[in-house]
Each structure stands twice: as structure tokens, then as C-alpha cells.
Amino acid sequence: MRVTNNQLYENLMSGINKQLKTTNDGNASISSGTRFQRPSQAGLDYKTSLDLRHTQTQISGSVESLTVAESRLSASQTLLHDMTNVLTRAQTLAVQQSSAQMGAQEHAAAAAELSHLLDQAFNSANQQWQGESLFAGTAVDQPAFVVDGGGLFQYQGSNQDRTVSVSSTQKVNSNIRGDEQAFTDTFSALSNFKTALLANDQPAIASAIGELTTANNGMIDLTSRVGGQISALQSYKQSYEDMKFSIDKRLNEHESADIPALVAAMQQADIALQASYSQIANIKNISLLNFLR
């Protein structure tokens, strides 16, 4: 079968386009560091990348949620520890003031300090984190505690916990509410002790030691419980971070371009391209000679 110059020319142009595509795709892959940049280059591999990236996004969201929960609980733990320090100081005062050598003047001075300690506990219980009330449950836009007309400390938050979603099916608590018994005992013990001091009531001052000890133990237990929650969240977080590392590694291996192989293919394409250009030039010269004859 006789091959005409036109047919040969078309075949060479087809080869040139193929080699140019190899060069262009190679440059794009070297520039981006990936084997493919669009579905048409590798349909199934492109879909696999999309699936991996979707999983990557979900895991990153879980890590972010756990980080928020951990930070909120860590802030809560710090404030609970502050309230423990308040109770410890109040216990020390109660032991001192229960002595028979202490009179009304000493009791009044201690009561003044108790007022400061109550204010400190109240402020800690009403602290905010990122502009939201820490201990008010889901009622984040209002203080957790108020003082009523009778001087009693009242919880006014919600009875619902704040949660964060770590997956489509799993949520974890990320707060401590002020309606925990430890808060009630703390304000009650401090208030009763202050009242006893102001009344110069020696038996009531002595009994305040037991109330304050109970309140302090409760606050210590609550602080420890929060520590356990933080440890659990950190464990969850580490698991998700390990998963993220695995997905990141798999995605990198799946998409990464083989630069040496690409360079070799582009070099071969360039050689073939130059040969094709040379053959096209010969065809044109032959055609010109035939025309001149």
C-alpha cells in the first residue's frame, strides 16, 4: 500500500502532538509535584485522591474539635484549682479562728478576708473562655452564678452539657457545669464560715472546719475528674492525629510524581520531537522539488 506524503505528514503531526502533550504534562507534574492534576489524566487515581482528601478533612475536623474540648476543659481545671486554693486558705483560717484565744476583733478581720475569698471563688465560677461562660452549661451568654437578695449564691446556667462532635456518630462532653455539688458545697461552706465569724459564734466557727474540708475534698475530686476527661480527650486526639499522619502519607505516596521518570520521558519526547520536525522538513523539501518539476 502506497503511503503518500500527506499521510506521512499527518502521522508525524500526530506524533508531535503526542510528544508535546508528554512534555506539557511532565512540566505540570514537576511543577505541582503530583502525577495528575485533572480527572482526564487518571480517572480512578483522581477519585482515590478525592476519597483520601475527604477522609483527611474529616479527621482534621475531629482533631480540631478535640483541641477545642481539651482547651475548654483545661481552662476549667485551672479555675477549679483556684477554687481549691480558696478553700484551702479558708480551712487554714477556720483552724486559726477556732482557737479560744481568738476574739471578736480577730474574727472580724478573718471575715474581711473571707469576703475576698468568696469574691475570688465567685469570679472563678463566672469566668469566661473565648467570650463564653465556662460553667453555665449551654447558657454561654450569661454568668453561671448570681447572688440573690438574701446573699445566697445561685446557679443560673442550663442543665445541659456542651459537646463537640468528633465524628458523625460520636460526641464528647467539653465542659463542667456549675450545678455540680462541689460548687454548692463551696459557696455554702464559705458563706457559713463568714456568717459564723461575723456573729463571733465560736461553735459555728469550729464546725466550719468540717464543712470546708468536705467542700475542698469535693472540689479536688471534681478537678481530678476533669483531669481524667482531659486525658481521655488527649488519647482520642492522639489516635486521630496518628490516623491523619497515615492518610497524609498515603496521599503523598499516591499522588507524588516520579520526577526522574518524568525527566527521562520528557527527554525521550524531545528526541522524538526533533526527529519528527526533521522528517517534516524533508517532506516539505521533497514536495517543493516535485512541484518545481
Briefly, what is this?
By secondary structure, the protein is mainly alpha-helical. It contains six helices and six strands, in the order αααββββββααα. The mean pLDDT is 84.
Summarize this structure as a short list of keywords or feature phrases.
293 residues, mainly alpha, f41 fragment of flagellin, N-terminal domain, two-stranded antiparallel sheet, 6 helices, rod-shaped
Rg computed from alpha carbons, rounded to a whole number of angstroms: 38 Å
Q: Which overall shape is indicated by the principal axes computed on the Cα atoms? A: rod-shaped
Q: What share of residues are in beta strands?
A: 5-15%
Q: Strand count, sense and closure of the main sheet?
A: 2 strands, antiparallel
Order of helices and strands: HHHEEEEEEHHH
Sequence of strands across the biggest β-sheet? 1-2
Overall mean pLDDT score?
A: 84
Low-pLDDT regions: none
Which CATH class of the largest domain is shown?
Mainly Alpha
What class would the helix/strand composition place it in? mainly alpha
Q: Helicity, in percent?
A: over 70%
CATH architecture of the largest domain: Up-down Bundle
C-alpha end-to-end distance: 25 Å
Structural domain count:
2
Number of strands: 6
Topology:
Blueprint: H1 5-32, H2 43-97, H3 104-125, E1 128-129, E2 132-133, E3 145-147, E4 153-155, E5 163-165, E6 171-173, H4 181-198, H5 202-255, H6 259-292
Antiparallel strand pairs: 1-2, 3-4, 5-6
Helix pairs in contact: 1-6, 2-3, 2-4, 2-5, 3-4, 4-5
